[in-house]
Write a structure and sequence with these properties.
By secondary structure, the chain is mostly beta strands. It is built from no helices and nine strands. The strands form three sheets. A four-stranded antiparallel β-sheet has the order 6-5-8-9, with no helix packed on it. Strands 3-4-7 form a three-stranded antiparallel β-sheet, with no helix packed on it. Strands 1-2 form a two-stranded antiparallel sheet.
C-alpha cells in the first residue's frame, strides 16, 4: 500500500526525574503514513497522585494524558505497594474518553486485589500507559513512577 508504514518504533526519551516519558511500538499500518507527531500531537502520560479510598480498599490515581485531538483515548495502570510481608496491587482502566490534543486530567479508581493486602499510605510504584486510537491505528505512551500514596 502506498503511504503506509508498518512497525515504526517511536521513542521520545527520558522525562522529569529520569522517568520514561514515552515509549511505544506501532505494529499496525499508519493510514496515509502520518505518525502522531506529524498529526501535531505526540502521546504522553504522567502520574500525578494516588489517594487512599475506603481505608485502603482502593486508591484514586490521577494522570495527565495527552493524545490526538478527536481520537478515542484510554488510560490504564498498575499500582504495586509492599505492605509488610504482603503486596497490595490494583489496576485502573479509563476507557472511551475523547482526546483533546492538549494535556488533560484523567482520574481512575484501582481496587486492591482481594488476594493481597489493602493499600496504605506510603511508597508505591505506578506503571501507566495512554492509548490513542484514530480509527484502527493505535499508538501508546507509557511511564512508571515511584510516589507516595496519600490519605
Amino acid at each position: 500500500m502506498p503511504g503506509v508504514r508498518v512497525g515504526q518504533r517511536v521513542v521520545n526519551g527520558v522525562g522529569v526525574g529520569g522517568h520514561l516519558a514515552r515509549e511505544g511500538r506501532r505494529d499496525q499500518a499508519v493510514a496515509g503514513g502520518k505518525s502522531p507527531e506529524q498529526r501535531g500531537c505526540a502521546d504522553a502520560i504522567s502520574v500525578n497522585s494516588a489517594t487512599l479510598v475506603a481505608n485502603g480498599a482502593a486508591i484514586r490515581v490521577v494522570f495527565t494524558a495527552t493524545c490526538g485531538a478527536g481520537d478515542g483515548g484510554s488510560v490504564s495502570s498498575t499500582t504495586t505497594q509492599a505492605v509488610g510481608d504482603r503486596i497490595a496491587q490494583g489496576t485502573t482502566e479509563a476507557l472511551g474518553f475523547t482526546c483533546t490534543g492538549q494535556p488533560q486530567q484523567v482520574s481512575a479508581l484501582a481496587a486492591a486485589n482481594v488476594n493481597g493486602a489493602p493499600f496504605r499510605p506510603g511508597i508505591a510504584v505506578v506503571m501507566a500507559s495512554v492509548s490513542d486510537c484514530p480509527g484502527a491505528n493505535c499508538t501508546e505512551a507509557s511511564t512508571d513512577k515511584v510516589l507516595s500514596i496519600r490519605k
